């Protein structure tokens, strides 16, 4: 699959016409099912009491921040991630730097690391709607669902903006002058 584990990245690639609609929908369904299973495994290893104390790993906007802050953090964080994916896997870049494609996971992983440093205090870092969904389903308490929409809307907007920026601004064909 190319390592598709995040519906927001898949959505960005769909918008950039790098994936078919059928494949993107299939990937997103499987990503969500995988996240639900993963959260269930974590609950099994942690035990119900520790899992509940940790809030089930569900994303929430932290006290002191507004829903707008949380949404903004998710948009910007996902933009950084998806733009990094586009840049690290760009076919034109790979043709120019033939020794680099094998190293694409390094900048992507570094981007995820930096986004986590910036957004954990605000939202616990969503940037992956499937992971947020899996934790919310397995934890299944009101606090996991109250602001859950932020962890879908924010990443999808961030992914759309990254796809638009990469396709229109970065990969734009220059206008011909007469």
Automatic annotation (TrEMBL):
Transmembrane segments: 24-42, 102-122, 149-170
Compartments it resides in: Membrane
InterPro entries documented for this protein: Aquaporin-like, Aquaporin_transptr, MIP, MIP_CS
GO molecular function, one term: channel activity
A GO cellular component annotation in the UniProt record: membrane
Membrane topology, from the record: Multi-pass membrane protein
Keywords of this entry: Membrane, Transmembrane, Transmembrane helix, Transport
Family recorded in the similarity comment: Belongs to the MIP/aquaporin (TC 1.A.8) family.
Name of this chain's protein: Aquaporin 1
Organism (species): Aegiceras corniculatum
């Amino acid at each position: 699959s190319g390592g598709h584990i995040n519906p927001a990245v898949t959505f960005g690639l769909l918008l950039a016409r790098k994936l078919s609609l059928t494949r993107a929908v299939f990937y997103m369904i499987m990503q969500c099912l995988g996240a639900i299973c993963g959260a269930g495994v974590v609950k099994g290893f942690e035990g119900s009491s520790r899992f509940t104390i940790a809030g089930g790993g569900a994303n929430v906007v932290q006290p002191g921040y507004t829903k707008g802050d949380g949404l903004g953090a998710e948009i910007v964080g996902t933009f950084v991630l998806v733009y990094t994916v586009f840049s690290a896997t760009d076919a034109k870049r790979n043709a120019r730097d033939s020794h680099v494609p094998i190293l694409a996971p390094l900048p992507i992983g570094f981007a995820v690391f930096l986004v986590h440093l910036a957004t954990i205090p605000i939202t616990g870092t969503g940037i992956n709607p499937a992971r947020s969904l899996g934790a919310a389903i397995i934890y299944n308490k009101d606090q996991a669902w109250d602001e859950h929409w932020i962890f879908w809307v924010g990443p999808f907007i961030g992914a759309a903006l990254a796809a638009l920026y990469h396709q229109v601004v970065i990969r734009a064909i220059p206008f011909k002058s007469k």
